[in-house]
TrEMBL record:
Gene3D superfamilies: Cupredoxins - blue copper proteins (2.60.40.420). GO terms for cellular component: apoplast. CDD domains: CuRO_1_LCC_plant, CuRO_3_LCC_plant. The lineage of its organism: Eukaryota, Viridiplantae, Streptophyta, Embryophyta, Tracheophyta. It is found in: Secreted, Extracellular space, Apoplast. Binds 4 Cu cations per monomer. It catalyses: 4 hydroquinone + O2 = 4 benzosemiquinone + 2 H2O. Residues 41-153, 165-321, 426-561 form the Plastocyanin-like domain. This is Laccase. Pfam families: Cu-oxidase (PF00394), Cu-oxidase_2 (PF07731), Cu-oxidase_3 (PF07732).
């Protein structure tokens, strides 16, 4: 009886703390917003074929969340779909509250069909464009939308207020439709690299003019001659870097990932999977129609040709009287080709934080933790002939460890001291040093281990990580690394093997770009820094979804500080139960859940 009384007291105390925490948040927030997201299946037709897909509020893309810097947003998710779902607020730091971050098996388990769950999205220093998306398997292919964060009331943009705004969300189309996750699970079980591939790219849910049955629905953006427009761009494509260009128009980049940049005038963008960009476009050409074109930047081996060759398009259309008999102008001279690594490198090298008096940078100088992490293709052994075709299955790794999802989410295990769910031995260095970007590397170097291995950081540690791409198995690619719960400074990027003596001399510690997602170049490296001042469990992963599914991820546990303000909040009164098993069909799991309820 005493034990029961103690548990009841603990539950009561947690509820009280949560209540007063929410009251405090509402008091601090500039404004509070409420959204209802209803997930359900709809039929849509693209490229002359009708598929059933899962969407939010019957739309592809889903609804846009709009708020101001410092606001608080509550999103009630009603899962009317056929399987469990989680949502992630990509670029929102969620201070002290990883419970609402969203990645499955990291901070929560999936919201079962027929169940509602409310996320608390606490906007703090983010300003500009970020986004939200599903974070279980590849559900995000159709479940995603933008988050537009305006300056605080009474504040202004750090550039002349634009005359208007347009939103562009790049997406992927899969012919598998609602069966995409089942097709993915089948290939992952087989251990092959034949995971589903996108068959096209979308702009605001549409292919554009160059795909059959699509030109009637090509997105159009109206502009007035002489006016300037803010284009908010989200790369929600499932695992693809993209080039973007507008015929005969330059773009001025002014923001990335919810932070402002020094303005740079460019004729094209290279935006990696998961990134967002804000650009200004002035309508200063002859009134007419101009294509905005988005094309894949393919970083796989040059012999690999199974990438999307079609170009997604929208039309910038000037208002007024002019002839519509000729087709829109196309950016033939400015849209880079599929494998243009030089164009990508040239774009990346220009990126800088705004670093103004109102939008300062705070790059850690005295580093307390240094990590060197290889991002690599690998393979792992199949125990007991569990793979269909070979003794090994395809894997990707960070420091030679391929992430394995636990049965209970890491956050719950950490908070409740549940043993056996994860280990805290993620290494600061790879197990062996070699010529990471060389040719004809020994396949023995590709042997990897599977595990749920996390890195533990003390509160307020200053961290530097060098991500090193490898050419193991002759499969080097770009790796857009995304960190949950934080933004970080990209202090250096280079090609080849990182040199720890000469390369740090070229670090930018004055105005490096501040982002939450950044590409590690093919056969190259990227160095970042951040301060571990957000306690909780935070996911780190490659935003190429097939790489993430093969294991290129880990998690950081940032321990509590010494005060309530520097400690993780207790969980909400309800979190989705961890009853789903990857070895059971969800219908069976759903029946079990309903029986328990």
């Amino acid at each position: 009886m005493a034990k029961s009384s103690s548990n009841s007291s603990n539950i009561f105390l947690a509820a009280v703390l949560l209540f007063f925490g929410n009251v405090f948040l509402r008091a601090q927030a500039s404004d509070v917003h409420y959204y209802d997201f209803v997930l359900r299946e709809i039929n849509v037709t693209r490229n002359c074929t009708t598929n059933t897909i899962l969407v939010v509020n019957d739309s592809l893309p889903g609804p846009t969340i709009q708020a101001r810097k410092g606001d608080l947003v509550y999103v009630k998710v009603h899962n009317q779909g056929p399987y469990g779902v989680t949502l992630h607020w990509h670029g929102v730091k969620q201070p002290q509250n990883p419970w609402s971050d969203g990645p499955e098996y990291i901070t929560q388990c999936a919201i079962p069909p027929g169940i509602n769950f409310t996320y608390e999205v606490n906007l703090t220093d983010e300003e500009g464009t970020i986004w939200w998306h599903a974070h279980n398997e590849w559900t995000r292919s159709t479940v995603y939308g933008a988050i537009v964060i305006l300056p605080r009331e009474g504040s202004n943009f750090p550039f002349t207020t634009p005359d208007g705004e347009h939103l562009i969300l790049l997406g992927s189309w899969f012919n598998e439709g609602i069966s995409l996750n089942k097709a993915l699970e089948m290939e992952l079980s087989a251990g092959t690299n034949h995971v589903p591939r996108a068959t096209g790219f979308l702009i605001n849910g549409q292919y554009g003019d160059f795909v059959p049955c699509s030109n009637e629905t090509t997105p159009h953006f109206s502009v007035d001659y002489g006016k300037t427009y803010l284009f908010r761009i989200v790369n929600a494509a499932v695992g693809s870097e993209m080039f973007i260009s507008i015929a005969d128009h330059n773009m001025t980049l002014v923001g990335m990932d919810g932070a402002y940049t020094k303005p740079i005038v460019v004729s094209y963008l290279m935006i990696v999977s998961g990134q967002t960009m804000d650009v200004l476009v002035t309508a200063n050409q002859s009134p007419g129609r101009y294509y905005l074109a988005a094309q894949e930047f393919s970083t796989e081996d040059i012999d690999f040709t199974d990438y999307v060759h079609e170009v997604a398009t929208a039309i910038i259309q000037y208002k007024g009287n002019f002839s519509l008999t000729s087709p829109p102008s196309y950016p033939n001279d400015t849209l880079p080709l599929y494998h243009d690594y030089s164009a990508a490198a040239s774009f990346i090298q220009q990126l800088r934080s705004l670093a103004s008096e109102e939008h300062t940078v705070d790059v850690p100088r005295n580093v307390t933790t240094r990590m060197f992490i290889t991002a690599s293709p690998n393979h792992v052994a199949c125990p007991d002939d569990s793979c269909y075709f070979d003794d090994y299955k395809v894997a990707t790794t960070l420091n030679n460890i391929s992430w394995e999802d636990p049965s209970v989410d890491v956050l719950q295990a950490y908070y409740r001291n549940i043993s056996g769910v994860y280990t805290t031995d993620f290494p600061d260095l790879p197990p062996v040093m070699y010529n990471f970007t060389g040719d004809d590397l020994s396949t023995s170097l590709a042997d990897a281990a599977q595990g749920t291995s996390v890195k533990v950081l003390n509160y307020n540690e200053t961290v530097e990580i060098v991500f090193q791409g490898t050419n193991l198995l002759d499969q080097s690619e770009y790796h857009p690394m995304h960190m949950h719960g934080y933004s970080f400074y990209v202090i250096g990027v280079g090609f080849g093997n990182f040199d720890n003596e000469t390369d740090p001399q070229m670090y930018n510690l004055v105005d490096p770009p501040k982002v939450n997602t950044f590409g590690v170049p093919k056969r190259g490296w990227a160095a970042i820094r951040f301060r571990a001042n957000n306690p909780g469990v935070w996911y780190w992963h490659c935003h190429i979804d097939r790489h993430m599914s093969w294991g290129m991820s880990t998690a950081f546990i940032v321990k509590n500080g010494d005060t309530e303000e520097t400690s993780m909040r207790p969980p909400p009164s309800y979190m989705p139960p961890c009853i789903a098993s990857k070895d059971k069909p969800y219908g069976e799991i759903d029946r079990t859940l309903k029986g328990d309820i």
